[in-house]
Amino acid sequence: MIIQLHANKTLKEIQSEFSSLFPYLKIEFFPKTAGTGKGVKKEYLKNLHVTLQELTKKQVDDQLILDENTIVNELEKQFRERFDLNVQVFRKSGNIWLETTATNNWTLGYQNSQGQELDKANLSANDSDYHEQH
Question: CB 123: neighbour CB atoms within 10 A?
Fold first, then answer.
């Protein structure tokens, strides 16, 4: 799976392409790292409509190759080292998104499958609650 990165691509476009590959994961962009194993504050989120050219001093015309076996912290490291972008992967858990700081050593495929399982469990619980109310 390839995500093409070029100077005029917006963060939103990168985020959408990533989520189309891994629907139970998303990436968020931050101006600085929070540190290994630490969470990030929501006020650090970047404007998703800015282009890569506006964010980084590096020349960006490259591709990011990833698949289900890519380790989360390796993906985050690639964004940081190759494109001067700080990202954090989040996993869907019902109606919320969890930072994967404690599970950064998991693969994207495993993270995505865990998000899918949590989503199914949440839907089943909501269905049960709904039926019990009638």
Answer: 11
